[in-house]
Specification:
This protein is an alpha+beta fold. The chain is 25% helix and 20% strand. It has one domain (51-256): Muramoyl-pentapeptide Carboxypeptidase, domain 2. It is globular, with a radius of gyration of 19 Å. It starts with a strand and ends with a strand.
Length: 257
């Protein structure tokens, strides 16, 4: 499997097998090169290309045109307004909940209607709508996120955006249920860098009730292939306080770490 994977934070990791040429002996790899190699190996170990990749929600949503995506929003009775945003192919702003779940930043209510950080690509919204269906079954009514869209300083109009620059990713930090109780990823995930996130042998340590609910929510989303990329506190320290959930156009691989 040969591709380059651009992760949150702007770090591009090549997962291609290197071509080795016979050359004269050289000095050993630098410390920085060794660290990059370890990061690449760690990511590659968590990337899969399932045989049914083209039948998954994430793959389907990522291929939709703006007209097709907005028609799907309308058919689901999702309230939104169309936006304009540099680097975002299909920008919209939610004006209501998804399955009773509100996705929002911590910004004041009077600021939110014009904040760029609450703009989302329409295709991400469809994935979040599916995710909200999972959340609602756990009595979650609100998701507080750090951002979806992060406006670029400059951008070529003919270049499609990805991740947060393309408003195709959300950094979800807190999940609030109908009683007002908060599941905080930073406090309640109970993971460890490098640990397995879902599947046999995975689980929070300690297994508190909040940690188990967070893990159940996340792992169902992963199992249903709602997002191409799911990064957790198990990935690295910059993700210690949120789940990075991303739709990636034009790929058939999935990353869960």
């Amino acid at each position: 499997m040969i591709f380059a994977l651009a992760l949150a934070g702007g770090v591009a990791l090549s997962l291609a097998s290197p071509i080795v040429h016979a050359t004269a002996p050289a000095a050993g790899p630098s410390k920085q090169a060794k660290q990059r190699s370890r990061r690449t190996s760690s990511v590659a170990a968590h990337v899969i290309t399932p045989s049914d990749a083209k039948d998954t929600p994430a793959y389907h949503y990522a291929r939709l045109s703006q007209a097709e995506c907005e028609a799907e929003l309308a058919s689901r009775h999702i309230n939104f307004v169309r936006e304009t945003a540099a680097a975002v192919d299909e920008p919209v702003r939610l004006t209501g909940p998804l399955h009773g779940v509100v996705f929002r930043t911590d910004l004041a209510d009077k600021v939110r209607p014009t904040s760029p950080y609450e703009i989302a690509d329409c295709r991400l919204v469809l994935a979040l709508d599916d995710f909200a269906e999972i959340l609602s079954r756990h009595d979650i009514v609100e998701v507080r996120h750090y951002s979806i869209y992060r406006p670029p300083r400059s951008w070529s109009e003919d270049k499609p955006g990805a991740q947060h620059v393309g408003a195709l990713a959300i950094d979800a930090g807190r999940f609030i249920d109908q009683t007002g109780a908060v599941l905080d990823v930073d406090r309640d995930f109970h993971g460890a860098i490098g640990a397995k996130t879902c599947g046999d042998g995975a689980g929070p340590r300690p297994a508190s009730s909040a940690a188990l609910i967070l893990r159940a929510i996340l792992c169902e989303a992963a199992e249903r292939r709602l997002f191409h990329v799911i990064l957790t506190p198990n990935y690295n320290r910059p993700h210690k306080n949120h789940f990075h959930l991303e739709v990636t156009a034009g790929v058939t691989w999935f990353l869960l770490h």
